[in-house]
Design goal:
- This protein has 317 residues and is mainly alpha-helical.
- It is built from 18 helices and no strands.
- α5 packs antiparallel against α6, α9 packs antiparallel against α10 and α14 runs parallel beside α16.
- The mean pLDDT is 95.
């Protein structure tokens, strides 16, 4: 209802939720979204801050993330900093570092990551570090620093499959796709059921390697482990689209979008519809992707040419 601008009715349902469940985080989030949509951003921010103050440390991080999502940047930063300072979790500074990276302040985030590598669990720090490079459009020098940290962690724990996955993910960011494929294969040699490696290797083989049959076997193996997980269904949709099975792809992608809507999933669904000859549905999918905030540069580098082709095709009468 909020997305459709039907704010009066949305407010009624939020009130019903609060009456039944109390002022839970879900109710606060929805109430804040209504207030922001009505142009009352200050009231929305105060509502979220008050929730964090009443809930203590456990409420601070979700409140900060909500403020971040609503682009209430100054308030979000204050709560992220409070969480990093007050929480006893070794990984607490990662939330602040990730926020800074997403806001184009990667240079401020990198010292936090350097400290976290010395104190925190290496796989959690590694995941956040690689995500920060993507979000903050990290430079080759930034990527080199993260690579050195990951290499040191791998040397200290050579048996860790999770660290190898992170190394391959970093290679993808660096567009060293052949190196990424080799590391994912090594991961699967050690653990054939490692879902991230199954998913990511399937994607690379389909989109870059021109090997959709092998890719399909890999992603089906991943789905056998997880069940119909939306992210893996999304990848299978990409694989099936590349294999010329656009209708099957669209079915998987429609389910993925329904379960976990996201810009990239809408984009993949648009591609499948276009390959199946459904131009109007493809246009709707691209519109949904952009409304979800997706931009060309947010895509995996291997898919940016697909954005260009899709946009050009939809622009033709």
């Amino acid at each position: 209802l909020v997305r459709r601008g039907e704010l009066a009715e949305a407010e009624q349902w939020v009130q019903k939720l609060a009456e039944r469940a109390g002022e839970t985080f879900a109710a606060v989030e929805l109430r804040a979204r209504v207030l922001k949509a009505k142009g009352r951003s200050d009231a929305a921010a105060k509502l979220i801050r008050d929730f964090a103050a009443a809930g203590g440390a456990r409420a601070t991080l979700p409140a900060a993330a909500l403020l971040d999502t609503l682009d209430m940047t100054a308030d979000a930063e204050g709560l992220y900093r409070a969480y990093a300072a007050d929480s006893k979790e070794p990984s607490a500074p990662l939330a602040l570092a990730g926020f800074l990276a997403r806001r184009g302040r990667l240079s401020e985030a990198m010292p936090l990551y350097e400290a976290a590598w010395k104190a925190g669990p290496p796989e959690a720090v590694g995941r956040s570090s690689v995500a920060a490079l993507r979000a903050g459009r990290g430079s080759p020098a930034d990527a080199g620093r993260v690579e050195a940290w990951i290499d040191a962690a791998v040397a200290a724990a050579p048996q860790s499959v999770g660290l190898l996955v992170l190394k391959a993910d970093l290679y993808q960011f660096q567009e060293r796709f052949a190196d990424a494929v080799a590391v994912y294969r090594e991961v699967l040699r050690r653990d054939p059921r490692q879902v991230v490696a199954l998913n990511n290797l399937a994607y690379l083989l389909a989109v870059r390697g021109g090997r959709p049959d092998e890719a399909l076997a890999l992603i089906d193996a991943g789905l056998a482990v997880t069940g119909p997980h939306p992210d893996l269904l999304d990848t299978r949709g990409v694989v099936l689209t590349r294999a010329g099975r656009a209708d099957e792809a669209a079915a998987d992608l429609a389910r993925a979008v329904a379960d976990a809507p996201a810009g990239e999933k809408h984009f993949h669904l648009a591609l499948a519809h276009l390959r199946a000859g459904r131009k109007a549905a493809a246009a709707t999918g691209l519109r949904d992707a952009t409304e979800a905030g997706l931009r060309r540069d947010d895509l995996h580098p291997l898919e940016r040419p697909e954005w260009d082709r899709l946009s050009a095709e939809l622009a033709r009468p």
